[in-house]
Amino acid sequence: MPEYLAPGVYVEEIERGPKPIEGVATSTAAFLGATELGPSRPRLVTSFSEYMRYFGDIFSDSAFLPYSVRAFFDNGGRRAYIARISGANAVAANVDLAGFALTATGVGTAYHRVQARIEPGTTRNGAGDPVGFRLRIWYWSKAAPNIPYDVQAADDAGGDPPGPRPNVTEDFDDLSVDPASPSYFEKRVNGNSAFVEIEAAGAAPPQLPGGATSAVLADGVDDDVLTLPSFLGDAQDPNQRRGLAALALDRYRDVAIVHAPAAASDVVQAVITHCERNRFRFAVVDSEADQADASNLDPRTTLRDSTYASFYYPWIFVSDPRSGARRKVPPGGAVCGIYALTDNTTGVWKAPANEVVAGAIDIEYEVTTGTQEVLNPRGVNAIRRFPGRGIRVWGARTLSSDPLWKYTNVRRLFIFLEASIYYSTQWVVFEPNDPRLWARVQQTITLFLRTQWREGALFGEKEEEAFRVVVGRATMTEDDILNGRLIVEIGIAPVRPAEFVIFRVYQQTQEATS
Predict the structure, then answer these.
(1) Shared-domain flag, residues 189 and 275
(2) Helix axes 435-455, 408-424, angle to 10 degrees
């Protein structure tokens, strides 16, 4: 109890009753694959235009991640982490300029289309001298013949350079060389520029530039050979982890969906393993392209029997944003967007199926009812065309052979409930393990599950039919209590989708009456 040593009136704040459980986000996705440019550490983007700023545009017919991210946002996605994957031999471009070392934020030769200029800042002191320096960055999405261009001529013309205009311009003015200043150049530029990071070029502190100097980043090296180690991204230093290893860090714990577009089978298995170990994530898996004979599809045998993944077939055709031509792309990006759309409009307990695939203009192969009768029991979720109803996702099964976990929404509902309870009950650790704590924990979880039941996530006409929470002597032995183990048993009845809708129609005859 509190210590009172002097007479007086004391006001205390105490906690009584249950603590609220906050539901975790379920619609944040993570995409792994090759991009045109961008940092190697996962970065959050909230729109395709923001993706283009940091990671570039569609750049290769064999790199499907830009198409998948675009389909994700077109289909209702809101938040996505982009984990750029590159080969082991890729090198970042760089250049030394006016005593400063500029390094590209990512690897590859795409940064050779970045021009930097350092010049005196625009703000002057009482003596008319600049108080800092100015860093300007220009980026062209395509190689321009005027790189490096005449900046002075562009300024004289009102900012328009001769020739093709840059696609992105960054301007950092009045940067300071004083580390104690809030405008210190490393504080202002690093982490805020989409293209460069800056530091002093030598051991001596940098000085304010006396004039203007321009240069183009150079010496970048591409390496598009992506192997399994590239996706795993393991490193002893947590700051050097990439790919799946980076996504395992706690800072990315809000990721709930993981997808590697058109990835090789060993990469897909690594993604599924990552989700299984994390326990709070779900993998979306693409079929291979050109799978004309759907009867050979059996992902539970060829990939993994897992409750933490769903498999989608076939590929879809979209309109290429660069040319408008038909482009065949994997369906996973659009499916991730449909997951997010369903979660945000109804709830994670709703099957992410019977939804139109926005942006799809055709499918690679037609899937008939007879074909799906073969695929559905194998855990293959078909994407089908229905006359008058468009192209829709027509399946919501996991890759699990266990009947209890065969539906995607059931597994994702349990992920949501388990993660929400896990993160919101951390306050219980080191509390006295006594009946007062047991009652409080039971109330906390009961209130949370009651809310989910009322919203339609749990099955049952009565609360007792939907869930039960037991904690106390019925769940713990004396040994458990002495060893500090608080055990809570939670029973949940999830809602399952009406996958097979049956209408029984019979012929009713009129009976004779006297």
Answers:
(1) no
(2) 140
Looking at residue 148, what is its pLDDT?
64
Alpha carbon of 58 to those of 46, 77, 107, 373, 482: distances in Å? 18, 19, 17, 37, 60
Residue 79 lies in a domain: yes
Quick: pLDDT tens for 456-497: 999 999 999 999 999 999 999 999 999 999 999 999 999 988
- Angstrom distance (rounded) from CA 35 to CA 42: 12
Both 386 and 243 in a single domain?
Answer: yes
Closest CA to 420 of 456, 451, 396: 451
CATH at 292: 3.40.50.11780
**In the prediction, which pLDDT does 165 show?**
78
Same domain as 186, residue 124: yes
Q: How far is CA 505 from CA 502, 508, in A?
A: 10, 9
Domain that holds residue 80: 29-87+224-405
Shared-domain flag, residues 142 and 249: no
In this structure, the answer to whether residues 162 and 70 fall within a common structural domain is no
Read off the DSSP letter of residue 116. E
pLDDT digits (tens, 9 = 90+) for 403-447: 999 999 999 999 999 999 999 999 999 999 999 999 999 999 999
Indicate the length of the chain as a whole number.
Answer: 514
Mean pLDDT of 329-353: 97
- Other CB atoms closer than 10 Å to residue 371's CB: what's the count? 18
State whether 247 and 120 are in the same domain: no
pTM score, two decimals? 0.92
Q: Is a pLDDT exceeding 80 seen at residue 236?
A: no
CA atoms of 72 and 80, how far apart (whole Å): 9
Mean pLDDT of all residues in 312-331? 93
* pLDDT tens-digit readout, 174-207: 999 999 999 999 999 999 999 999 999 888 888 8
Question: Helix 332-345 to helix 65-74 angle, to the nearest 10 degrees?
Answer: 20
Question: Quick one: 187 and 244 in the same domain?
Answer: no
Are 76 and 344 in contact, with CB atoms under 8 Å apart? yes
Q: How many domains does the chain have?
A: 3
Residues 299 and 173 in one domain: no
Boundary residue ending a domain (186, 216, 246): 216
Partner residues linked to 124 by β-bridges: 130
